[in-house]
Design a protein that fits this description.
It contains two helices and four strands. It has helices spanning about 15-20, 40-50, and strands spanning about 1-5, 25, 30, 55-59. The strands form two sheets. The chain has a two-stranded antiparallel sheet. The protein has a two-stranded antiparallel sheet with strand order 2-3.
């Protein structure tokens, strides 16, 4: 699975609250690629919860 944060992140922290092993939010969200394996379900939940829909998930 490939996970990317597209331009437009508002750093609300929703993704990090759903999946802290994968997402880190400071000025913008970043993805810890090493944390994706085994956390696919929470990655999808975080993408669905993103209020500005900037989390891109490719299977």
């Amino acid at each position: 699975m490939k996970v990317k944060i597209e331009e437009g992140c508002i750093a609300c922290g929703a993704c990090e609250s759903f999946c802290p092993d994968v997402f880190k939010v400071e000025d913008v969200a970043t993805v810890n690629e090493a944390g994706v394996a085994g956390n696919e379900d929470c990655v999808k939940e975080a993408a669905d919860a993103c209020p500005v829909s900037v989390i891109s998930v490719e299977e």
